[in-house]
Amino acid sequence: MSIGIAPPITVAMPEPRAGVSLWSDAWKRLRRNRAAVIAAWFLIVVAVISFAAPWIPGLGDPTVQNLKLGATPPSAAHWFGTDDLGRDIFARVVYGGRISLLVGIVATLVSLLIGVSYGATAGYLGGKWDLFLMRIVDILDSLPYIFLVILLLVFFSKSLLMLFIALGLVQWLTMARIVRGQVLSLKNQTFVEAARALGASDRSIIFRHLVPNTLGPVIVYTTLTVPAVILQEAFLSFLGLGVQPPAASWGTLVSDGARVIALFPWLVIFPGVALSLTLLCFNFLGDGLRDALDPSERKEGV
Amino acid sequence: MVTFLIRRILLIIPTLWVIATVTFFMMRLAPGGPFRAEREIPAAARAQLMHSYGLDRPLGQQYLSFLGHAVTLDFGVSYKYPGRQVREIIFEAFPVSLELGAWALLVAVLVGVPIGVLAAVRRNTWIDFSAMGLALAGVSIPNFVLGPVLVLALSLTLFMFPPALWQGPASRVLPVLTLSATYLAYIARLTRAGMLDVLRQDFIRTARAKGLSEATVVLKHGLRLGFLPVVSYLGPAAARIIMGSIVVETIFAVPGLGRYLVNAAFNRDYTLVLGSVLFYSLFLIVLNLLVDVAYTKLDPRVEMK
After folding, report:
1. Residues β-bridged to residue B85
2. Is the ipTM value over 0.85, yes or no?
3. Which of A151, A235, A255 sits opposite B27 (nearest CB)?
């Protein structure tokens, strides 16, 4: 047996693979989730129609009354029928969606801004500061905040701005908890130490190094916050505290329709279905995103 | 355990104080007042009214006197319902809300848990899919949409139940059903997820290996742990049921505290608002405490700290 130099290995090495980042992996998983994809498309269509409403030809003005016409059931001319003032319900549902979605998105952004900065700061500072900041969150969380929102809206103003603030203010607590938990587990890792060694300030460590790494759970929770806010806005509008006439959100439409449901049921059905389907799709999308971004935490069903 | 309870009970006081203070000053700083209603009242008459309710005193003095009386659950007289003590209104209206909420929660647990268990045991069959599809719809349909639709279908078309009011057992069906739907659906989803988690574990395999019947394994060994997420959800659920009951009471004209609270806020009935907000808050805080205690009893791994 001669000992020679081993011939060069000719076994074909596998092609060098492109690294799979968390995001492209998650994207792939999300696209395989049929319910989430359908939900996403539905939401995109609803959003585009709602926000493009003023430029859609043939879509009437939702506030134009036609008292001679009065309430008519759905027909070819008025797909969703008309209300007792002769207003086209399709147009009202489309414009209502505009307000509902706007409230949902803006209030969620408010809560995102407060929750992420607060939670990241608490988690990063740790110790006494963390204890103090999170105790405040605990106390706020135990408040029956919905009463405070009702009072805030009744006593101050029923403006859209107040609605954004009131809803955003009550939604940031969970976000703060989530981000704090993430930051707590991240802050002792080497990349943070490296950043500190390079002379990064606390602020830049929090917002440039830690926060971007918490994006996964934040995105998931954001997707689930939007429908929660839309639901709360609808709830407040139902009580007469939300959007004020002549503007109307889905909640206002359902509220108005509920009073005359025995006579004109379509006034409740169409906005109710639009609202419910939108909430359903957000929930599907949120579930799908959670499964896609965090397969290890995959919880079935909930 | 005892120190935990004491600390939690002591924490109730500052929490209630914060709520009372925020609510008090929010109402007083807001423009408008209880006697600036539809028609103009002569200035002298209003001054007389303000005086008789003590509203002309300095704000600090009013605040202190309010706090002093609130400790004994004395919130004064309602402005909107003259001559009626706020306490009296609360004690009359709250049991109605409590009954509505308790029935709704009971229905949600008694129907939601079996559905969840069934879906978990028959995982990935049509039973599972239809149960969970229904549950997701239940979570997504708001109660103020469901309520009117139920009224339309069961009351105005089929004449099965009265469409409103709170008189007799039949009148309770629709409000309870409307209020419980969301929680029923969510509890079914929670139970299914909890059961799937538990049924995978080793002690379940051991129980099966011992030759226990499938029913004993699932219901006795599995459900005890699989039920935990539901228990911890009951606290927040009760809190949200209160919010939901405001709507349901409005839809069905149920004379509960939620409806009084909303009307009182609209009417600037300061004393009634303060009284009902504080009363609700106390109720919620105590409820959450009870849920935490129940949780430790069910799961020995959780320690009270």
Report:
1. B77
2. no
3. A151
